[in-house]
Amino acid sequence: MRSTIARGLYVAKGIPKPPAVNMRKMVGANTAQQVADNCVFAHSNRAGRNIGENLYQYKIQTGIDACKAWEVEFEKFGWPSNLLTESSFQTGIGHATQMGWWKSSMIGCGVAQCFDNNYQKLLVVCHYRDTGNWINENMYNSGATCSSCGEGYSCETSSGLCTV
Protein backbone atom coordinates (compact mmCIF):
# COMPACT_ATOMS: atom_id res chain seq x y z
CA MET A 1 0.00 0.00 0.00
CA ARG A 2 2.72 2.52 0.93
CA SER A 3 4.60 2.00 -2.32
CA THR A 4 1.39 2.33 -4.33
CA ILE A 5 0.59 5.60 -2.55
CA ALA A 6 4.17 6.87 -2.97
CA ARG A 7 4.10 6.26 -6.72
CA GLY A 8 0.70 7.93 -7.18
CA LEU A 9 -1.02 4.67 -8.15
CA TYR A 10 -3.39 4.37 -5.20
CA VAL A 11 -7.12 4.78 -5.85
CA ALA A 12 -9.59 5.28 -2.98
CA LYS A 13 -13.32 5.19 -3.72
CA GLY A 14 -12.55 5.64 -7.41
CA ILE A 15 -10.37 8.73 -6.84
CA PRO A 16 -6.66 8.51 -7.78
CA LYS A 17 -4.46 9.86 -5.00
CA PRO A 18 -1.38 12.00 -5.70
CA PRO A 19 2.16 10.62 -5.28
CA ALA A 20 4.17 11.25 -2.11
CA VAL A 21 7.34 13.33 -1.98
CA ASN A 22 8.62 11.72 1.23
CA MET A 23 6.96 8.35 2.02
CA ARG A 24 9.43 6.35 4.12
CA LYS A 25 10.09 2.65 3.68
CA MET A 26 9.30 0.67 6.82
CA VAL A 27 11.69 -1.71 8.55
CA GLY A 28 10.78 -4.33 11.14
CA ALA A 29 10.52 -3.90 14.90
CA ASN A 30 9.42 -6.31 17.62
CA THR A 31 7.36 -4.29 20.07
CA ALA A 32 3.84 -5.64 19.50
CA GLN A 33 3.99 -9.34 20.37
CA GLN A 34 3.84 -8.75 24.12
CA VAL A 35 0.68 -6.68 23.70
CA ALA A 36 -0.90 -9.37 21.50
CA ASP A 37 0.01 -12.10 23.99
CA ASN A 38 -2.06 -10.31 26.65
CA CYS A 39 -5.17 -11.14 24.56
CA VAL A 40 -6.84 -7.85 25.51
CA PHE A 41 -8.54 -6.06 22.63
CA ALA A 42 -7.77 -2.54 23.85
CA HIS A 43 -5.13 0.02 22.96
CA SER A 44 -2.17 0.09 25.30
CA ASN A 45 -1.46 3.25 27.30
CA ARG A 46 -0.50 5.89 24.70
CA ALA A 47 1.70 7.78 27.17
CA GLY A 48 3.72 4.65 27.82
CA ARG A 49 4.10 3.47 24.24
CA ASN A 50 4.99 6.60 22.20
CA ILE A 51 4.07 4.74 19.01
CA GLY A 52 1.10 4.34 16.70
CA GLU A 53 -0.95 1.22 17.33
CA ASN A 54 -3.50 -0.73 15.28
CA LEU A 55 -5.56 -3.59 16.72
CA TYR A 56 -7.66 -6.19 14.95
CA GLN A 57 -9.55 -9.13 16.39
CA TYR A 58 -11.82 -11.41 14.46
CA LYS A 59 -12.24 -14.96 13.33
CA ILE A 60 -9.57 -14.62 10.68
CA GLN A 61 -7.05 -17.01 9.25
CA THR A 62 -3.95 -14.83 9.07
CA GLY A 63 -2.54 -11.53 10.22
CA ILE A 64 -2.51 -10.40 6.59
CA ASP A 65 -6.32 -10.28 6.77
CA ALA A 66 -6.00 -7.55 9.42
CA CYS A 67 -3.87 -5.35 7.16
CA LYS A 68 -6.32 -5.83 4.31
CA ALA A 69 -9.22 -4.90 6.61
CA TRP A 70 -7.42 -1.73 7.70
CA GLU A 71 -6.70 -0.73 4.11
CA VAL A 72 -10.37 -1.28 3.15
CA GLU A 73 -11.19 1.72 5.36
CA PHE A 74 -10.03 3.94 2.48
CA GLU A 75 -12.36 2.14 0.07
CA LYS A 76 -15.27 2.21 2.49
CA PHE A 77 -14.97 5.75 3.84
CA GLY A 78 -12.85 7.54 1.23
CA TRP A 79 -9.97 9.86 1.82
CA PRO A 80 -10.97 13.45 1.13
CA SER A 81 -7.49 15.01 1.33
CA ASN A 82 -4.00 14.40 2.67
CA LEU A 83 -4.81 16.68 5.60
CA LEU A 84 -6.13 14.56 8.46
CA THR A 85 -8.89 16.53 10.12
CA GLU A 86 -10.92 15.50 13.15
CA SER A 87 -13.96 14.97 10.92
CA SER A 88 -12.09 12.80 8.40
CA PHE A 89 -10.50 10.79 11.21
CA GLN A 90 -13.91 10.21 12.80
CA THR A 91 -15.21 8.60 9.58
CA GLY A 92 -13.23 5.48 10.47
CA ILE A 93 -10.02 5.74 8.43
CA GLY A 94 -7.59 5.85 11.37
CA HIS A 95 -6.08 2.39 10.87
CA ALA A 96 -5.49 3.03 7.16
CA THR A 97 -4.01 6.49 7.70
CA GLN A 98 -1.60 5.07 10.31
CA MET A 99 -0.46 2.47 7.76
CA GLY A 100 0.08 5.22 5.18
CA TRP A 101 1.57 7.91 7.45
CA TRP A 102 4.66 9.24 5.63
CA LYS A 103 6.96 9.46 8.64
CA SER A 104 6.31 5.96 10.02
CA SER A 105 9.46 4.04 9.20
CA MET A 106 9.27 1.09 11.61
CA ILE A 107 6.56 -1.52 12.02
CA GLY A 108 6.26 -4.45 14.37
CA CYS A 109 3.27 -6.77 14.44
CA GLY A 110 2.32 -9.44 16.94
CA VAL A 111 -0.27 -12.18 16.50
CA ALA A 112 -1.85 -14.29 19.25
CA GLN A 113 -4.60 -16.88 19.36
CA CYS A 114 -7.03 -15.82 22.07
CA PHE A 115 -10.30 -17.09 23.50
CA ASP A 116 -13.31 -14.86 24.05
CA ASN A 117 -16.44 -16.52 25.48
CA ASN A 118 -15.16 -19.91 24.29
CA TYR A 119 -14.58 -18.60 20.75
CA GLN A 120 -11.09 -18.74 19.37
CA LYS A 121 -9.99 -15.48 17.77
CA LEU A 122 -6.80 -14.09 16.37
CA LEU A 123 -5.60 -10.80 17.87
CA VAL A 124 -3.30 -8.76 15.64
CA VAL A 125 -1.41 -5.78 17.07
CA CYS A 126 0.82 -3.55 14.93
CA HIS A 127 3.04 -0.80 16.32
CA TYR A 128 4.35 2.04 14.17
CA ARG A 129 7.15 4.49 14.77
CA ASP A 130 6.95 7.40 14.19
CA THR A 131 3.42 7.80 15.41
CA GLY A 132 0.91 8.97 12.82
CA ASN A 133 -2.66 10.21 12.87
CA TRP A 134 -1.85 13.74 13.98
CA ILE A 135 -4.96 15.87 13.53
CA ASN A 136 -4.46 18.86 11.19
CA GLU A 137 -1.29 17.37 9.71
CA ASN A 138 -0.78 15.77 6.31
CA MET A 139 -0.70 12.00 6.04
CA TYR A 140 1.98 12.74 3.43
CA ASN A 141 3.00 15.65 1.23
CA SER A 142 2.07 15.25 -2.40
CA GLY A 143 4.30 15.99 -5.36
CA ALA A 144 6.87 14.18 -7.49
CA THR A 145 7.65 10.76 -6.01
CA CYS A 146 10.70 10.80 -3.70
CA SER A 147 11.44 14.44 -4.50
CA SER A 148 11.82 15.41 -0.85
CA CYS A 149 13.12 12.38 1.06
CA GLY A 150 15.13 14.51 3.46
CA GLU A 151 18.62 14.35 4.90
CA GLY A 152 19.91 10.83 5.43
CA TYR A 153 17.35 9.28 3.07
CA SER A 154 17.58 8.27 -0.57
CA CYS A 155 14.97 7.21 -3.09
CA GLU A 156 14.39 3.53 -3.79
CA THR A 157 13.09 4.06 -7.32
CA SER A 158 11.48 0.62 -7.69
CA SER A 159 9.14 1.25 -4.74
CA GLY A 160 9.06 5.06 -4.71
CA LEU A 161 9.90 4.96 -0.99
CA CYS A 162 12.54 6.91 0.89
CA THR A 163 15.12 4.63 2.54
CA VAL A 164 17.88 5.13 5.09
From TrEMBL:
Family matches, as SMART domains: SCP (SM00198)
Domain of life of the organism encoding this protein: Eukaryota
Xref: InterPro entries: CAP_dom, CAP_sf, CRISP-related, V5_allergen-like
Cite the SCP domain residue spans from the record: 1-136
Q: Which PANTHER family match?
A: CYSTEINE-RICH SECRETORY PROTEIN-RELATED
**Name under which the protein is recorded:** SCP domain-containing protein
Q: Name the source organism.
A: Heligmosomoides polygyrus (Parasitic roundworm)
Q: What is the lineage of its organism?
A: Eukaryota, Metazoa, Ecdysozoa, Nematoda, Chromadorea
